[in-house]
Every structure is written in C-alpha cells, then in structure tokens.
C-alpha cells in the first residue's frame, strides 16, 4: 500500500499520550502502511522526549 499520510512530531506526541482521544481514534482507523513518519520525526520522538 502506498502511504497516504506522514505524521509530524506533534501528532506522534498526541498518539503517545493518547490525547486528544480523537487523534488516536483516527490513527487506529488507518490501514497498516497508510501512515508513515520521517527519520527526523522518529529521532525527535526518541531523543527529544528523553531530554
């Protein structure tokens, strides 16, 4: 499946915190492979939160 959406850091944080619930529900409704994140977003989520 070709990706349809790319998540940014803010949305990643919302999903990790489960807030707002609507963001999580919308993400859960997506098909596997339809949503991707960039390497930069991944690094920000992994290392930015730890700081």
Automatic annotation (TrEMBL):
InterPro entries named in the record: PIN-like_dom_sf (IPR029060)
Superkingdom per UniProt: Bacteria
SUPFAM superfamilies attached to this UniProt entry: PIN domain-like
Official protein name in the record: Putative Virulence-associated C
Species of origin: Rhodoferax antarcticus ANT.BR
